[in-house]
Amino acid sequence: MDQNFAKEVATLCVRHYTEVLPKKDDLKVVAMATGTKCIGRSKMSKEGDIINDSHAEVLARRAFLRYLYEQLQAARSGNQESIFTSPDQDRLCSLKNSIKFHFFTSQTPCGDASIFPKESPAGVELSKDPSSDDCEAGAGVKMVQDESLRGHRGACKRAGDSFDVDASSLQLSSDSSSECLHSNKKLKCDKSVPIQVSVTEPCVQQLCNDTDSLVSEHGDNPSLLLDRSSSRCCSTSPACTSVRDDETDCKTAPNQLPEQTDSSSGYCRDIHRTGAKCMPEGPQDLLLSGADYHRVGLLRLKPGRGDPTLSMSCSDKMAKWNVVGWQGALLSHFLARPLHLTSVIVGKCPYNQEAIQRALMGRLQQVSNLPEHYTINVPHIVSTQVLFPDSKGAVQSSNAAGHSNQGKVVPAGAAIIWANVKQGTLEVSVNGKRQGVTSKNIHKKEARCSVCKAEMFESFKDLMQSCPESGYPQTLRRNDLHTYYDCKMAATPYQQALARFHVVFNTWVKKPSDYSLFS
Q: What are the A to I editase domain coordinates in residue numbering (predicted)?
């Protein structure tokens, strides 16, 4: 036999083994975002073409939805490489057993998860430090281009412009292909975010191994360690409507932190504070010194600068997703079960295990009578000592060490959104619209971001149109589904679970329905 032929066969077999055969513990980023801003109610659009909440956690989750839509399209067309199974007899898809989701954030979510005692006594840290608040304006990073980023000038503003972005990302890990791991390693080297940023980065990951493996695999990954600079949170206007229940009040967690006293000095310790404000119709913060400044376990709103928002804090939203799932109402039409996280992983930052567990899970204990397949998800919550090198603290330390005077570290207005999809993977948004769009085109379709409600609804309709009506899930076999609102409300099990959640969290702000009547 020819020696070259034998070598070719051997090489082919080895290549197939290393590149094609399924492998365990394969990681893949599926979505990522940065951002710290929210728009006020006066700037909201009834056409669904503006992103209301541009905090990193929220944008990452919306980018994740783009990924899920593409994966569902693949599953319903018979593509075996999808993370979902083919539709069952009820026309519903399920997540494959080998796939799990993990969420990484380099800082605790704004709101209740960020309220906990400081380690220094009140004699040292008693006054409020705005730069340490998780949702306080005036904190962030002054963004400047450096030598390593000059190749990306087209996506940046001029050098010296200020940026403050929260970063969030979603990651995929499965045992289906080594390409997943390769894609992830590529992200480690590829500076797809063309600016130096102070960011918060939640990342949802699909993983088939445990949390420790995830930390080990991604612990040194710059693309995944985006530390959040502060964002602002303020109260909403009294005109905002809210979900209430006359017979039930939200009393799901103790309202005050236990008194924190330093045993050596006797001083009462201060707490880390959030800029997020309590709901106007619910209990309010005491605003006293030390541990009595905040009440804990309460719903809170993010702010707009002088224009109240209708955006709940990231702690509140993540708690809700632990009940109704991360897939949202529209995608729940096509799924047999809601999609939940296996873990929430936090980078190096001020952190308190009790606080984040209280915010994301502890407050949910009174939620009951959920519909079939819905349950209170309890993800593993793990902190790491991985610090993003361009975080606010790291940049300030670097400036101090180098005696560099870059001025005040401030939040940036831009957000970066990335999804692991075939088209339109990366975009930058400002004030809920795509960056770079002229005022002449601001109301046209090209000004929309891919993760705004209107574009998500287009993805939903594309998914429906990809199959005959006989292939529709039961909840979509109706003739009265015309608007975004109609289709969301038709997701009966999801809406039932959401209603049970609102029985407990009865001051949750509900956006007026006319903001969802677009088609």
A: 31-518
Q: Residue 228's closest CA among 410, 37, 34?
A: 34
Note the residue count of the chain. Answer: 519
Q: Which residues is 29 bridged to in the sheet?
A: 171, 205
From 8, 19, 47, 57, active-site residue: 57
How many Å apart are CA 511 and CA 366, to the nearest integer?
A: 24
pLDDT score for 111: 95
Measured between alpha carbons, how far is residue 258 from residues 158, 289, 290, 297 in Å? Answer: 48, 13, 11, 13
Domains of the chain, residue spans:
3-236+251-516
Q: Are 196 and 141 in contact (CB under 8 A)?
A: yes
Burial zone of 14 (CB within 10 Å; 0-12 exposed, 13-18 middle, 19+ buried)? exposed
Rounded Cα–Cα distance for residues 37 and 398 (Å): 25
Distance separating the N- and C-terminal Cα atoms of the chain? 67
At 30 the three-state DSSP class reads: strand
Please report, as a single letter, which amino acid is at residue 68.
L
Report pLDDT for 41.
93
H-only helix segments in 275-352: 314-324, 328-332
Beta strand spans in 160-305 (E): 168-174, 203-206, 271-272, 277-278, 300-301
Cα(335)–Cα(88) distance, rounded to whole angstroms?
A: 10
Instruction: Give me the torsion for CA of 460, 465, 469, 474, rounded to 10°.
Output: -10
Buried b / exposed e over 308-342, threshold 16 CB at 10 Å, is: bbbbbbbbbbbbbbbbbbbbbbbbbbbbbbbbbbb
In this prediction, residue 25 carries a pLDDT of: 64
pLDDT digits (tens, 9 = 90+) for 89-142: 999 999 999 999 989 887 899 999 999 999 754 444 333 343 344 554 333 222
**Which pLDDT belongs to residue 22?**
64
* Rounded Cα distance, 114 and 55, in Å: 15
Structure tokens at 57: 């956690």
Question: What Cα–Cα distance (Å) separates residue 113 from each residue in 14, 196, 442?
Answer: 49, 26, 36
Q: How far apart are CA 62 and CA 64, in angstroms?
A: 5
Outline where 294-422 has alpha helix (H).
314-324, 328-332, 353-360, 392-401
Distance CA 190, CA 197 (A): 15
Question: Which of 112, 82, 49 shows the shortest CA–CA distance to 444?
Answer: 49
